[in-house]
Amino acid sequence: ENDQIVLVHGRYYINDDEKKIFAEKVVLAEEHNIKNLTSAVVDQPAKYRNLSAEQKSEKLYLKIERNSEELMNPVLKILKAFPGNKPVYFFFADSRKVFEANRDFFVEHRPELEKELVILLGKENVKWQ
User: Fold this and answer.
1) Residue 75: which of 28, 48, 34, 107 has the closest Cα?
2) What is the pTM of this model?
């Protein structure tokens, strides 16, 4: 079926011009009970392709101990309060996996955003690159 959320196990390559995923295994997300991940971290390429190289150049990386509603919900609420065109990436320390946020959670680089995320996650877990 189309439009289903899946987990991909394999390797990935991302730069400003392209994204590549080398899948070794693909399974439905619902089989792994990760309901809180759903649309918050699923990339929607059609929306992302419309961004210029300059808009894609700066990215926000957030390190989070584990993917759980108690940790993700406050983070997503903060991100929604600062809409913009800067991509956001989540690194989950327990699984050592990286997910790009849905375009709806892209942000504007503002000091207030960074301050709120640092209070919630710690300075070492909030990086702009």
Assistant:
1) 107
2) 0.59
